[in-house]
Write a structure and sequence with these properties.
The complex is a heterodimer of chains A (344) and B (185). Chain A is 67% helix and 2% strand. Chain A has 344 residues and is an all-alpha fold. Chain A has one domain. Chain A has a two-stranded antiparallel ribbon with strand order 1-2. In chain A, a hairpin with a 2-residue loop joins strand 1 and strand 2. Chain B is an alpha+beta fold and 185 residues long. Chain B has a domain of 107 residues: Alpha-Beta Plaits (2-Layer Sandwich), CATH 3.30.70.3270. Chain B has five helices and five strands, in the order αβαββαββαα. In chain B, a hairpin with a 5-residue loop joins strand 2 and strand 3. Classes of the chains: A mainly alpha (344), B alpha+beta (185). Chains A and B meet through helix 2 and helix 12 of A and helix 1 of B.
Chain lengths: 344, 185
């Protein structure tokens, strides 16, 4: 945002600055509410969908069709006792869940979610912060979120949690590299790190058409990024009981889950922005298109959870280092060659 | 080199085929009707011999069948059946009191198998949870029903008869007793 420049002004510009600030707060509140609401709804959607995948009804007892299940879950989580194990590292133990939820929410700050609004000749950008290094910010934030997992696992002082944390960190290294590299061709084609510019560059066609390989790599990496099947090694239930969040209870446990589900939505929005043209689409309003595209990744992740078994630890390493990394490097080289030849 | 490449291509093709197969399988099930039975709304009819709450049945005349032989109590693996036997004036044995602790009962059905008079029987009813464990102690009044359970016609005493009270020679078709000392030749 160009706030500092406005800030120097006086009188009318000062008034405009205050209005802009209020507008920003409204946008923040709106995005936060929608994002957390979607995360809560996604818990129900996941249980419902997973149920139907396994030819049973999911939760259908709380409210009509089980629609009030997220409310019941929330109340339950809030009222549960917040247990800190006696031998845990108290401060880190209590802070770690926030790192996961916070970073997931922060990523959404750079995601444009609709077309710019024009009110009385003034453009209101439908993005909280149009950083010119937005893509790097996204990658940095998604890397920081692993601290929540690794530190939470370490601070619990439990062998299962520690194993989960170590696996989380190792998993991060093996997929984050290919994930970052899979986005390099997007930057090369759109010639910008800003997510707003990337969406604008897809005015004519979405990048999935020109970068299908990058799309596939990003999709596979997004499963690992969300710590979900088939890459849910940090919390592998039948090996590590619950992995890194085994010792957590109450709202801290819920924070990990909020982080995970917000992460699903955020990855969905990133996929929409990078490959599917963001909010662009015919007939329907931009925000509807955006939400529709965002829901593709959560649906795919839930579908994968119903379909695929968990990868073994070394299989994940194999896939990350020997398949995805060379493939994404090759994709960069080919994209570069094509740009060089066609000259755009 | 070419051979190796075809090997990689083959492996990749197999991998894609396997993935597509599992995704297609789950997607097919997404549109199937769930097979869940919604329990409290729909109660599946249970087989007549399924083992649930225990009852004490009566014979066709309306008299209780239990003869307080203690066989059920003896065979019970959790010792949840207890009783005290008593004899009625007409010679029928019965339980003065009869008690089953259902919180201890494991519904194994051994009591039913042991019972010589078909008195104790298990019913398909299983929905009788309580908020207090002591409410599971069922007395004879709670256990007795006014029907014969699975065998309405059976009447133990019609086969076995009663141990009659009264002097020798007073029973039906009985010769008067002989005075052995006066029975001189």
């Amino acid at each position: 945002m160009r706030m500092p420049a406005m800030c120097r002004g006086t009188g009318k510009t000062g008034m405009m600055w205050i209005l802009g600030f209020i507008l920003l707060l409204i946008k923040l509140a709106l995005v936060l509410a929608v994002l957390l609401g979607m995360a809560a709804a996604l818990v129900l959607v996941e249980r419902k969908l997973l149920g139907r995948f396994q030819i049973r009804y999911g939760p259908n007892r709380v409210g009509p069709f089980g629609l009030l299940q997220p409310v019941a879950d929330g109340i339950k989580m809030l009222l549960k006792e917040d247990i800190v194990p006696a031998s845990a590292d108290r401060v880190i133990f209590m802070l770690a869940p926030a790192a996961v939820a916070m970073t997931s929410l922060l990523i959404f700050a750079v995601v444009p979610f609709a077309e710019d609004l024009t009110v009385r000749g003034r453009r209101i950008p439908m993005v909280i912060a149009d950083l010119n290094v937005g893509l790097l910010f996204v990658l940095a934030m998604s890397s920081i979120s692993i601290y929540g997992i690794a530190l939470g696992g370490w601070a619990s002082n439990s062998k299962y949690s520690l194993l989960g944390g170590i696996r989380g960190a190792a998993q991060l290294i093996s997929y984050e590299l290919s994930m970052g590299l899979s986005l390099v061709p997007i930057v090369m084609v759109s010639q910008s790190f800003s997510l707003v510019d990337i969406v604008n560059a897809q005015a004519n066609y979405p990048f999935i058409l020109v970068q299908p390989v990058a799309f596939l790599i990003f999709l596979v990496c997004s499963m690992a990024e969300a710590n979900r099947l088939p890459f849910d090694l940090p919390e592998a239930e039948n090996e590590l009981i619950a992995g890194y969040h085994m010792e957590y209870s109450g709202m801290r446990f819920a924070l990990y889950f909020v982080g995970e589900y917000v992460n699903m939505v955020v990855i969905g929005s990133l996929l929409a922005v990078f490959f599917l043209g963001g909010w662009r689409g015919p007939f329907l309003p931009p925000i509807v298109w955006f939400l529709l595209k965002v829901m593709i990744v959560p649906f795919f992740l839930i579908w994968s959870r119903a379909s695929l078994p968990r990868f073994r630890y070394d299989q994940l390493m194999h896939l990350g280092w020997k398949v995805l990394l060379p493939l994404s490097l090759l994709n960069i080289v080919v994209t570069g060659a094509v740009i060089l030849v066609t000259g755009r | 080199m070419a051979k190796e490449e075809s090997g990689i291509a083959k492996t990749a093709a197999e991998m894609v085929k396997g993935l597509a197969g599992s995704y297609a399988g789950t997607l097919k099930h997404l549109f199937r009707k769930p097979i869940t039975e919604q329990y409290p709304e729909y109660k599946k009819p249970l087989p007549a011999r399924s083992r649930g709450r225990i009852i004490l049945t009566v014979d066709p005349d309306g008299d209780e069948r239990c003869v307080a032989c203690y066989l059920c109590s003896a065979v019970c693996p959790t010792s949840c059946i207890s009783m005290e036997s008593r004899e009625r004036d007409d010679g029928r044995r019965h339980a003065a009191w009869f008690r089953i602790h259902f919180a201890r009962c494991i519904y194994c059905g051994l009591c039913e198998e042991a019972c010589p008079t078909l008195a104790i029987q298990l019913t398909p009813d299983f929905e009788f949870c309580k908020d207090d464990i002591l409410k599971f102690v069922y007395e004879k009044e709670d256990l007795l029903v006014n029907h014969g359970g699975r065998n309405q016609e059976y009447n133990f005493y019609r086969h076995a008869g009663l141990s009659e009270k009264g002097e020798k020679g007073t029973h039906i078709n009985e010769e008067p007793p002989v005075d052995v000392k006066s029975n001189m030749p």
